[in-house]
Specification:
The protein is α/β, with parallel strands linked by helices. Helices cover 30% and strands 29% of the residues.
Amino acid sequence: MKQLQDETNVPRLIVAGVTSGVGKTLVSTSIMYYFESKGFHVQPFKVGPDFIDPTYHAVICKRQSYNLDIWMMGERGVLNKFNRTSSRADIAVIEGVMGVFDGVFGKSDFGSTAHVARILNSPIILVVDASRAGGSIAALVYGFLNFDKRLDVMGIVLNNVASLKHLNTIKEAMKDKINIPIIGVIFRNKGLVLKERHLGLIPVLKSSRSSVNRIVPMSRLISKNLCLKGLRNLHVTRKVAVPLSSPKHSKPDIKIAIARDESFNFYYPDTIETLELNNAEIVDFSPVNDKKLPDGISGLILGGGFPEILADHLAKNYYIKKSILREAENGMPIYAECGGLMYLTKTITVYRKGKKDTRKMIGLVDGDTDMNDRPTLNYTEAENSGNFFRNIRKVRGHEFHYSRIHNIGKDIRFAYSLRRGNGISNNKDGVIIYNCLASYMHLHFGGDQRLAKRVVEMCRNYSKK
């Protein structure tokens, strides 16, 4: 920790929950709003692999929120990312993942919020859902405070408190047993709920004013019920306002198109930044709305998202589907993850009111996509034998989806053999077709700089043909 302190001494705090679903995101954005409203520059972060929560942070802080994921980035990668991106902020606010001690493995808290808190030497604000208990909340909090004495829990936020009577019951039970202040109380209010979809919260797109108009007022309201001023070990002072500088890179010599719209929007900012650092110009296009691919491109990236939600719009956009298929057959490098994989299959079938609704997709991948009610959620680790990421033997990522690929062609080839995770079929993932790699596994290019370098290399070679 001494080395970290030498690199940056920016004040920091982690918003952690006793479990998932206790309101961490809303408490996080409210704390961010609290400091932003007082003129401080807040750098937001998210522990773990989540794509969606950082979009809420960005609305409040008006700057990019970054993931801190030990599984995909390693401890040193997390430290480096935190140091560089927070160095010119007044305070860093980090939203945790799941419950405080929920990590990759059951036998340890590796990769958990607690793990990140320890390596960042960050105090914690603990969010507790009080909706189904009274005096027992004291026992719950006592357990979290004493489970790992290395952690510094500096305050408690009680969410879903039913009434003043309920609050007083909790306070009385905590008296003389819990020596940590309650810094926020959120009374039960159906209006203070963020909308969700089957993969969690609904992402906030830059073009979505309705989402922005909902998040900001809620965060403002809750921030008024937070008492952060007197927190020990949290002394925030304003620095000279200097925007975060990006690493310098040469003039781009190739152009890569990235699908980014209502259907495809799961991208780590580190992935985009590392591609740019390798001299690639990134241009967006919409498989939902655009009639053609951007001019002059040498590669395509189809990220994750919700292609099943607008499957009918994707199916009707014949022009863009034909363009992508034609470029794939011509050998253009295409990298697709999860939603991108689904889009490349022959069909997507969803079930609406008990009826099947099947829509035609691109048909590059010989298989069909079905939606189901059971999630597949894992951190993943794979042995890579494919040429797309050649010489990168081991890759780590994660998978999170409610779909499955079936009717898979017998001659289909896979790049990945998974040591951990499910993949597409029989612990295999990463379909290889032409110069295309399509997988359920999401990768974090910032966690392994070789990934972006290889993508750009393939696109550069293709551009010279």
